[in-house]
Structures are given as C-alpha cells and as structure tokens.
C-alpha cells in the first residue's frame, strides 16, 4: 500500500514502494533516522482524532499490506459524505471555540460580569455536551441520523441567538448551555460509518476528526477579529449563521443512509458502559483527557486579560495564537516519531505532561509578554502530543467490539473537563486573581503526572470487524474459541445482534485468510 500523507501544508511522508523500512524527510533525519513503514502508519493513524492538526491521506499506489486487504479510493458517495460531514462538524466546533480568546475581554459590558462568570460562560457548553453526547447517538439510531443532526444544529442556532441578544452574562451562559445541548458528534460519526465501506472508514473519520484542529486554529484567528469589528454579539451572530449553513448542508448535501454500520465500534452501547467504568486503564485515560481540557479551558479564562495587561491589543491576539499553534506542532511531531521508534511512548507521554506543568509555572511567574508567549508555546507542544496520544491509547485499550462505548465515555470526559476548567478557573480568578489560575493548574498537572506514572502502555493492535452467521450463544462461543487460537489474535468479541465478529490482532502475526476460513466453516 502506498500513501502520501500531508499534515497541513507540510508533507511529512511520501512512501514509495518499500515493504520493510522508510527514511523520513530530510528535516527529520537528525531526530529519527529511519523508521519502519508500520511505525509511520501507526503514527499517522494516531494523529487524526487528536484534533489539532490537519491530516489528508491520499492513496497513490497500491501493494499488499500486512493484512492483505486491498484498499481502494474513496468513491463519489464517500467523498461527498466526508466533505459534507466535515463541514457540518467544523462549523459547530468553530462556534464553540470562538468564545475562548475573546469573552474575558469583550464581555466586560455585560451585566453581572465577573471572573467566575467568565469561566462559566466559556465552559458551560461542555456540561450539556458531556451529558447529551451519548444519548443523542442512541437517539440517532431510533429516529435517524439526519433528524438528530438537524435537531442538534437547531439547538445550537437557538443558543447562539440567545447569547447574541443577551445583555447579561447569565443569558450568555444560558446560550452556551443551549449550544452544547446540540451534541451531534456521535450522530455525525455514526452517519459517516453508515455511508462508507469498512476499509475506507478510517480515512473518512480522519478527515472529520481533522476539522477539530482546523476549527480551533481558525477560531483563534477569527474570534479576536470578529469581536473587534462587531463586538461579542457579532461573534454569536456569526456562529448562528454558520450553524444555519450547516443545517442546509445536512438537508440538501449530506447523503441519506440506506443502511447502518455495526454500532459497536462507533456508538456507545448501553450494555457496555458499566464495564467501561470498571476498566482501570480506560479510567486513567478518561481522567487524563478530562484534566487536559480542564487545563486548556481554565488557561483561557486568565490568558486574554493577562495579555491585555502587557499592552497587547485584543484584536492582535491572533498574531500570537496562530504562530504558537504552528510552532508547537513542529516541535510535537519529532517527539512522536522518536517515542514510537524507540518504543518509549510512556516516557514521552509523561514528559509532555511535565511540559504542561512547566508551562503553567512559567505563566504563573510571567512578568512580560514574552514569558507568556513562551508558556503558551510550551503548553501547546505538550497539549498537542497528549491530545494525539490519548485517543489512540483508548482505541488500543478498548476491548474488541466496545470501542464505541470506550470512545463515547472518553469524549464525554473531554467535554466535562472543559466545563470543570471554566468553573475552576473562574472561581480561582475571582478569589485570588488571574495569575493564581496558573499556579493551581501546575498543581493539577503534577497530580496527573503522578497518576499517569502508574499507567501501562497498551500493546499495538489492528482492529477488524468481520460478518458471521451464528444463531446461538453456544455457536458464538465455539467460533470465538477457534478464532482465539489463531496466531496473533489478542481479543475476540462476537455480537449476535450485529452478526459481527470483532477482533484485536497483532498485524505482524495474524493471517486474515485463516480467520475468514474459520468463519466460513462455522457459517455452514
């Protein structure tokens, strides 16, 4: 299999017809030397869900992969679905992120404005998003993906209008709560799965996932510019218009699904949630993403006022945010490559948590603009690494056939962390001042570092989903036992309701032909 992978505008890998090893681009030679093709593929699979960078994967030339599964180009329907759903997803995330860099500065004229309500308004969306994300996914199974997406976007429009018309911080916060209530992420990803072939699904999910990072970067630029031109209400009117455009996309451009993909790998299953909450490794990762987004949101409660105190005009803040985001990505990628090549993922995971702590300590003691800029660069370097690593680890740890449940709880933890970050950051800023927020976040980072030091890095595995035809639990158990005996098989889960077999396998040892033969024999 030959792919050309591009990250943003920079090509980081152009794989030629090589089966064993691949030499990275010249600018990475000093850092990583040579790296195996499987390591490049694992890295690039890990990046898209992270959200803070663009990944565009295009097949250029085909040859057998380790699983001997032929991958084809996206067909016209899949391309249309990927682009349309990515636009729908990005418009909503853009609206949620745009308040981060501007509210603490442009909300001062609102009645009831205070540091506590800065945090509540910024993070309020996370509470309803965390509560409703999984139920909205279930609802989409009952009444249809398009209806749930239109309902969620209508709630987002309503919230934006309420916030745009608000004259008090309390109504702005209510608007943010309504914006978060339109929790359509699960429905979007489920529809993407419905509309794509299984072998093409990761590419489509990567395109959609990449829009999170693009939306964040764009929000850091557009937020300050729009707020300068039209005020805080103008920001909310803009998000309302964008959400209406997204509704039109859903109604007239997003393809209608005529079939449903197996839910186990895309949606949270009610019967699996209890097991996910008892899974120690998953809980550690869920706590990690909660604390990561708590730190991000709390940081933006205090950062804009501190930048303004350094005589850095609000409308110019994007001139700091954009280069910092780009530079942090440049520093993050070599660390990921080194961690994978040397198989030191846990060490670099801990190093990047430590970077968050260092960033908070620098910001806590910062007495000039350049120290705040340095703190922001160090923070986003660590943040991007962790944001890329955490979902990849969740996917690896999740039991076969339960990735949808694991990722559902993970995503809810992420949004709940944003809410807690706004609440905590606002409360600390109100009682002790904005600088104290960073001291508290440094302590939180240290607690996370201690907890993460006990973490076990999961073994790398390939996930497969194969159709089966079994009618009883006994047949399913017998087939699972036979599949478990195959070389390279780590886990087997057979869901009778889906008539699917979910496998976690070692790609170096597993022979898919043997598994297909066993399944075919069991179906007879």
Q: Can you describe what's shown?
A:
Helix content is 67%, strand content 8%. The longest helix is centred in the middle third of the chain and has 52 residues, at 201-252. Mean pLDDT is 81; it is low at 1-37 and 43-72. The strands form three sheets. A three-stranded antiparallel sheet has the order 2-1-5. α5 (115-143) packs antiparallel against α6 (145-165), α6 packs across α9 (201-252) and α12 (318-341) packs antiparallel against α13 (345-365). It is mainly alpha-helical and 524 residues long. β1 and β2 (10-14) form a beta hairpin. It has four domains: 2-46, no CATH class; 75-262, Growth Hormone, Chain: A (Up-down Bundle), CATH 1.20.1250.20; 268-460, MFS general substrate transporter like domains (Growth Hormone, Chain: A); 462-523, Alpha-Beta Plaits (2-Layer Sandwich), CATH 3.30.70.100. The protein is globular and about 75 Å long.
Give a short overview:
This protein is mainly alpha-helical and 524 residues long.
In one word, what is the shape?
globular
**What is the typical, i.e. mean, pLDDT?**
81
Strand order, largest beta sheet = 2-1-5
The percent range for helix content is: 55-70%
CATH class value of the largest domain: Mainly Alpha
Order of SSEs:
EEEHEHEHHHHHHHHHHHHHHEHEEH
Specify the number of helices: 18
Which homologous superfamily in CATH is the superfamily of the largest domain? MFS general substrate transporter like domains
Task: Give me the Rg, rounded.
Answer: 23 Å
Report the strand count: 8
Instruction: List low-confidence stretches.
Output: 1-37, 43-72
| Overall structural domain count | 4
| CATH topology-level fold name of the largest domain | Growth Hormone, Chain: A
Content of β-strand: 5-15%
Assembly level? single chain
Summarize the biggest pleated sheet. Answer: 3 strands, antiparallel
Q: Span from first to last CA?
A: 33 Å
Based on the coordinates given, report the CATH architecture of the largest domain: Up-down Bundle
């Amino acid at each position: 299999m030959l792919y050309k992978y591009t990250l943003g505008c920079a090509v980081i890998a152009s794989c030629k017809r090589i089966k064993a090893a691949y030499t990275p681009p010249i600018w990475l030679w000093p850092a990583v030397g040579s790296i195996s093709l499987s390591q490049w593929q694992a890295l690039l699979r890990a990046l898209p869900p992270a959200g803070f960078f663009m990944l565009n994967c295009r097949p250029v030339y085909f040859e057998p992969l380790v699983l001997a599964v032929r991958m084809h180009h996206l067909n016209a329907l899949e391309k249309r679905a990927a682009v349309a759903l990515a636009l729908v997803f990005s418009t909503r995330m853009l609206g949620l992120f745009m308040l981060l860099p501007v509210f603490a500065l442009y909300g001062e004229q609102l009645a009831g404005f205070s540091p506590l309500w800065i945090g509540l308004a910024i993070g309020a969306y996370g509470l309803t998003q965390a509560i409703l994300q999984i139920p909205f996914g279930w609802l989409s199974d009952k009444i249809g993906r398009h209806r749930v997406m239109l309902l969620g976007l209508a709630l987002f429009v309503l919230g934006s209008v309420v916030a745009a018309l608000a004259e008090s911080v309390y109504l702005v916060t209510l608007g943010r709560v309504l914006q978060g209530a339109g929790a359509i992420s699960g429905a979007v990803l489920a529809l993407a799965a419905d509309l794509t072939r299984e072998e093409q699904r990761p590419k489509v999910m990567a395109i959609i996932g990449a829009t999170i990072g693009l939306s964040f970067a764009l929000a850091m630029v557009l937020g300050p510019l729009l707020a300068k031109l039209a005020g805080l209400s103008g920001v909310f009117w803009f998000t309302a218009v964008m959400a209406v455009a997204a509704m039109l996309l859903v109604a007239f451009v997003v393809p209608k699904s005529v079939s449903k993909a197996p839910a186990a790998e895309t949606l949270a299953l009610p019967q699996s949630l209890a097991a996910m909450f008892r899974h120690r490794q998953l809980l550690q990762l869920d706590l990690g993403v909660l604390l990561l987004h708590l730190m991000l949101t709390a940081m933006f409660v205090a950062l804009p006022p501190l930048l303004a105190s350094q005589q850095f005009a609000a409308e110019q803040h994007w001139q700091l945010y954009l280069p910092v985001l780009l530079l942090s990505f440049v520093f993050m990628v070599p660390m990921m490559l080194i961690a994978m090549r040397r198989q030191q993922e846990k060490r670099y995971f801990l190093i990047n948590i430590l970077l968050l702590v260092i960033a908070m300590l620098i910001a806590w003691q910062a007495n000039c603009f350049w120290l705040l800029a340095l703190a922001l660069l160090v923070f986003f370097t660590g943040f991007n690494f962790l944001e890329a690593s955490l979902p990849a680890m969740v996917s690896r740890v999740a039991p076969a056939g339960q990735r949808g449940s694991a990722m559902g709880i993970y995503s809810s933890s992420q949004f709940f962390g944003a809410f807690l970050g706004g609440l905590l950051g606002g409360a600390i800023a109100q009682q002790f001042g904005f600088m104290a927020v960073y001291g508290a976040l440094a302590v939180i980072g240290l607690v996370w570092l201690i907890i993460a030091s006990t973490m076990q890095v999961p073994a790398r595995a390939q996930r497969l989903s194969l159709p089966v035809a079994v009618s009883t639990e006994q047949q399913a158990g017998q087939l699972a036992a036979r599949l478990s005996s195959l070389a390279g098989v780590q886990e087997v889960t057979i869901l009778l309701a889906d008539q699917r077999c979910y496998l976690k396998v070692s790609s170096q040892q597993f022979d898919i032909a043997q598994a297909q033969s066993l399944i075919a024999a069991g179906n007879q």
